[in-house]
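User: I'm new to structure prediction. If I give you an amino acid sequence, what do you actually give back? Let's try with this one:
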Amino acid sequence: MSNTIKSVSDQSEQQLTDLVEQALAQAKQQGASSVETAVSRSQGMSVTVRLGEVETVEHNRDKSLVVSVYFGHKSGSASTSDFTPAAVTDTVRAACTIAKFTAEDPYNGLADREHLATDIPELDLYYPWPLDMDEAITLARRCEDTARGTDSRITNSEGASVSSHEALEVYANSHGFMGSVASTRHGLSCAVIGVEDNGMQRDYWYSAARDAAQLDSPEEVGRVAAERTVRRLNARKISTRSSPVVFEAPVAASLLSHLTAAIRGASLYRKASFLLDHLGKQVFADHVRIHEQPHLRKALGSAPFDNEGVATKARDLVSDGILRGYVLDSYSARKLGMETTGNSGGVHNLTADSGTYDFEGLLRQMGTGLLVTELIGYGVNMVTGDYSRGAAGFWVEHGEICYPVEEITVAGNLKEMFRGITEFGTDVDLRRSTRTGSILVDHMTVAGA
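Assistant: Good question. You get back a string of structure tokens that encode the predicted 3D arrangement of the chain. For your 449 residues, that looks like this:
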């Protein structure tokens, strides 16, 4: 097997800086009134083991240079993966040619100079993993072996995977901004299949972190994957009813993603949001606070600046249940007559403050109702807020899990669902850029047999 590949930090950051400076200078020479460019190098590896045998081995190396130019309010963009001087020249020329043939858009342009980051914090995002392929295969086998040995009802496997990815990115524009970010992301995952009484179920688990030292052990990931699978065996159907619903933390983040989609600038200026004109209005119960924390060290959603070089900052999107801010880049902010919120490229560590109950306490608060552990399909209308998704999970009575359920649909309207959130659990899932515990919604329609 191959040895460990060199980290992106071994490939000079100065090379990427020289590239963006070359692109900026050439665009100005060709008459562009302003220009921005982003260059990146990334690489990674992954291995999947299934039933003890190596199934896939992947190495990837990517690089990209993107140049966007503005001639007044006309814009053009071009990209290349060839970093030779001739290719950079051709890319800049292509972007300028495109811009000259596009229509004027008064909202086009770089982020305003006063919003650009001037103090770039060190966020501890770069932890290369000196892992060779043999070691990765060993970790994946340990993970899958544990899962398969946890319970005799585990009869098959979809495999266990180990992955590692790192990237170095440099962004610069003609306002004089230049910033670079090196980052890593590593993961372990496992999915297995269980059988009992002629019924079959599948589930999985994973761990993800910037620093491989913070990953769960392969044995822990495998054990949890197996336990989550066998607990779903002998699932039942239930009749249609109205009941409270707990969304388990790993799926609860999707509810917050619907919030950010509804308050994103493009949705608002296109009038394609169920939260249109809701700024300053009550959207959740008054105990709810949802906020961005972009400068958390080592967190998966941290960023010192956004894709336009705008400084990121901690801010409330929702406090006291009231919508306090939108999610805007410079273009959408201008369209709405507002200022950018530093969200070109998305939100950064969107966090729902927890209440006082852990997962078990949340079930006791619910009493009798549905625990959702898996959502299937996408049945969300962002214009009306109507929500209907396939689901699987467990029926809960008197605060205790009674039996698994499947082939059900949970339905409601996101406006009512948001107002109906009574608790956020303390079991916060930190494996993604949206950080929330399990969520208790006071009532939804549960459609079954």
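You can read the tokens as a compact description of the fold. Here is one thing that stands out. The chain is about 25% helix and 35% strand.
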